[in-house]
Write a structure and sequence with these properties.
By secondary structure, the protein is mainly α. 53% of the residues lie in helices and 4% in strands. It has helices at residues 5-16, 35-59, 66-73, 75-82, 92-101, 112-123, 143-153, 157-169, 173-187, 196-200, 209-239, 252-260, 281-288, 292-305, 313-319, 352-371, 386-398, 401-407, 418-433, 436-450, 459-471, 488-492, 500-520, 542-552, 560-564, 578-583, 585-597, and strands at residues 250-251, 320-322, 335-337, 343-346, 473-474, 604-607, 614-617. The relative contact order is 0.11. Its EC number is 3.4.-.-. Keywords: Carboxypeptidase, Disulfide bond, Glycoprotein, Hydrolase, Metal-binding, Metalloprotease, Protease, Signal, Zinc. Chloride binds at residues 204, 502.
């Protein structure tokens, strides 16, 4: 007997003993409001889902994310599910399951054009089109592998400025076409009652989620402006007064140089207390002689210490595999399959940043183990970036001097006094505080694009208006009139698994979860110099593990706002910048006092790139920039 795809799934369910039904062609639950019939329909979907999960792990070509591919596999079932009166089901869990699954119903089937655009945007940072400055050789320089290295290591501002401009001037039409395809894709999902950004934010269950992100930016702006004034002064001291224009705006190529050199030993930056040198953690790791798989074991032991079930040697051997050298990109990022059978391909290198990242990766593995046994739909993360937030909280704990010294037995010859700790916080802030607003500008630009608030002819000037407003940054040079000056992270940030929303959400919520766990477990106590937030390590604390487990096992059973609600005494159900600001409070105070002592202006002047009007903004001191 020949079965159609749909009939074959029914046959599988009969064999598995879930339900007993009649002949395939007579099966139809679509016209019934009965919850039992709905459950039987979901069994069909469950089989299709898990088959697709395993196929993705084995045969994925890295173009589309697992979420998009699984949504695609459920396309044949959306019409049947929508015929149920599911909003009036008595079972709240069943209503929730329908609600989560049917978010995908607004998306059309994925075709070749979508895949091509996605592939273009994901790979553009590695595509070679820039020409060398000396004019010799082929125009085969990529940003990630070549130009980023120049920004990280060069102090030649003419060289940096050249490559900033060259990469943008040569931006291929294929990238612009892919961007416009994505814009059109989301605009086509809008209706008279639903704008495109409400689809973009559907998994955050808030059509106006941008307002919450804007509130976060407003909260961190005073801290950012102090760092901006300090950074502007450092650049002038190093390169001369002429590098900063009278407006106080920092040219973008200098900002990129500072960002890429955030953790570099001999960088353009100067620590607040240079006489207190930060330890060379790479040398410490080299002395210990760790192997790449040791980082996996160390991360697994972190979770065992807080009460998670031990990952057996057999599990680790079977589910954790070293990547082929060079396959993880320049940052050697692990690849994690966290749907169905869990598998992690880890970086075959050992360095400090990777030690911390592996803790975050292990958090994603533990999150998958906690939620993957839930029914289809409910087994998703609470919102995109929620797993990243849990990982960020764990990384913050594992990166503390307390953890490195007492748990991992590193830095035994160092005493972290207030001065050394300020240097550490300074480097962390440069990396984090210069990155978050970038992702926000990209997010804001993208939402304004898809909602039609700016026209294509205004995209570039609108981008620079946002960069001025939120970052005090301007273009260092005029590019060609048809150029889009956004960096590669903007283009990556509109692709599902790299979207900027995940980055912003995960960063702030990560600090929020970290602070809540530290407070509840009393590893952080306000006013106690021995239990500060920036040195809170909750390893070995079973109560901390219990709190993280409760977050993880929820999956998408309830909205993310309800998942985080029990973490605070005020039952907070939104993202807040309070934890982030409290973490860096001592550095913020130092920056404010240091800027005042040097009589530095805090703020800059904006000029509307679309209209050419100059607007002064937040000039708070009398001296020149």
């Amino acid at each position: 007997m020949m079965f159609s795809k749909h009939c074959w799934l029914v046959a599988v369910i009969v064999v598995c003993g879930y339900v007993s039904i009649g002949r395939c062609q007579n099966v139809s639950y679509a016209h019934s409001n009965d919850e039992l019939a709905a459950l039987q329909q979901l069994e069909l979907i469950n089989v299709a889902y898990w088959q697709s999960v395993e196929a993705y792990r084995k045969f994925s070509d890295d173009t589309l994310s697992a979420e998009i591919l699984l949504r695609q596999k459920l396309q044949p079932y959306y019409e049947a599910l929508q015929k149920y009166d599911w909003q009036n089901f008595k079972d709240p869990l069943l209503r929730r399951q329908f609600e989560v699954i049917l978010r995908g119903a607004v998306h059309p089937p994925i075709g070749y054009d979508f895949k091509r655009a996605t592939r273009t945007l994901k790979s553009m940072s590695r595509q070679k089109w820039a020409c060398p400055r000396n004019g010799g050789g082929k125009c085969n320089l990529a940003f990630v592998h070549n130009i980023k290295t120049i920004f990280t290591n060069s102090d030649d501002l003419d060289e940096i400025k050249y490559y900033w401009q060259e990469w943008r001037n040569k931006l291929p039409d294929s990238v612009k076409e892919a961007l416009h395809y994505y814009i059109g894709y989301y605009q086509n999902l809008s209706t008279p009652t639903r704008n495109a950004s409400s689809v973009w934010y559907a998994e955050y269950e808030d059509a106006n989620f941008m307002a919450e992100l804007e509130s976060l930016m407003d909260s961190i702006q005073p801290f950012y402006r102090e760092l901006h004034a300090h950074m502007r002064h450092v650049l002038r001291v190093k390169y001369g007064d002429s590098v900063i224009p009278p407006t106080g705006l920092i040219p973008h190529h200098l900002l990129e140089q500072v960002t890429y050199q955030a953790w570099k030993k001999d960088s353009v930056l100067r620590n607040p207390f240079p006489q207190r040198k930060l330890p060379n953690l790479q040398a410490e790791l080299d002395d210990v002689g760790l192997l790449p798989f040791d980082l996996v074991n160390i991360s697994a032991r972190f979770f065992s210490s807080i009460g998670f079930e031990n990952l057996t040697d057999a599990f680790l051997d079977e589910h954790f595999k070293a990547m082929e050298p060079g396959s993880g990109g320049p940052d050697c990022k692990s690849r994690i399959f966290d749907f169905g059978t869990i598998e992690m391909h880890y970086c075959p290198k050992v360095y400090y940043k990777k030690l911390l990242q592996t803790h975050g990766d292990m958090a994603r593995v533990q999150y998958a183990l906690a939620k993957n046994n839930l029914a289809v739909g409910l087994n998703q993360e609470a919102s995109p970036g929620f797993g990243n937030a849990i990982g960020e909280a764990v990384i913050l704990s594992a990166s503390t001097p307390k953890h490195l010294q007492q748990r991992l037995r590193l830095l035994q010859d160092y005493e972290y006094d207030d001065l050394l700790n300020l240097n550490r916080l300074y480097r962390m802030a440069v990396h984090t505080l210069l990155t978050i607003p970038v992702y926000f500008v990209h997010e804001k630009l993208w939402v304004d694009m898809i909602d039609g608030r700016v026209t294509p002819s205004e995209y570039n000037c609108h981008y620079w208006n946002l960069m001025q407003k939120y970052m005090g940054v301007e273009a260092p040079a005029q590019t060609n009139t048809a150029a889009y000056d956004m960096p590669y992270k903007f283009y990556e940030g509109i692709v599902d698994e790299y979207r900027s929303t995940r980055k912003i959400f995960g960063e702030f919520l990560g600090y929020q979860i970290y602070r809540a766990v530290c407070l509840i477990t009393r590893e952080f106590e306000r006013g106690n110099a021995y239990k500060t937030l920036d040195n809170c390590d909750f390893a070995n604390n079973r109560h901390a593990g219990k709190l993280l487990k409760e977050i993880m096992v929820s999956g998408s059973i309830k909205p993310w706002r309800d998942v985080i609600k029990p973490l605070t005494t005020v039952q907070l159900t939104r993202i807040s910048a309070t934890s982030f600001l409290e973490y860096f409070d001592t550095l913020n105070q130092w920056l404010t006092e240091d800027n005042l002592s040097k009589q530095l202006r805090v703020g800059w002047m904006e000029s509307d790139k679309c209209k050419g009007n100059a607007v002064p903004l937040n000039i708070t001191a009398a001296n020149a920039y």
